[in-house]
Design goal:
By secondary structure, the protein is an alpha+beta fold. The protein is 30% helix and 43% strand.
Length: 243
Amino acid sequence: MLTISVWMVDNLGMNPLNLFAWIISLGVLWMGAPAAHSQMLVYKVLIDEGKGINYHAYDGGYFVAPVLGGSGSFLLTSSDNRRIYVEATDSGRLFTAVNDNSKKAVVSATTGTGTASGAMLAYGEVNHRIHVSGRTADLHVRVAKNLSGTALSSNDESEVEAPTTNRSLGVAGISTFKLNLDENATRRANQDGLSMAQTMEQLKLALEREGYSNADAGEDDEDGGGDGEDDDEGEDDDEGEDN
């Protein structure tokens, strides 16, 4: 197991021993970089009801991203009519913004299909130290324990072919949301050496144990049911011909 320590040195000078130590440290960091990128952070997502018109926000879920930042994935849940979740792979990004006085973790995401568009932005102070232990590396890193932000969504629904039953048209709304570090889920994912995709699968199983179902899978089941009805009708026709 590799333990990675990141340190900075000023004024090495020309001392051969200092120069040798610096070269060795670069080699250790270079070898540890792939292992570091494989470590995951898991955040619990909490979303308020929000304000708007014809606006129905998700109420929670998870966000998973590499410890050192990069592309992340969302699992978002809704409990309006039934408990469902949707998966948005590589839909967000975790990065660090710094200046002379502050260091903040930032999570940003944008969405858009057809006339619909939306965005999420949250940030929080990098002030929490965690020990991330995996199969190939130990990391001591500072992360944001809590991030707060805003989500907004709009859709003029100009491409809707038929009016809705409640005579509503157009969507606009805004919600506040929080990302709280789930240290237990983070520890389990890294101790088991899970990739981001594997971590997402474990979180989906946890949601399903709580009674949630995959919204996309529900649509597939409905399509499959329709095909089954057509097959039954075909069998009835065959029986009629035999008679």
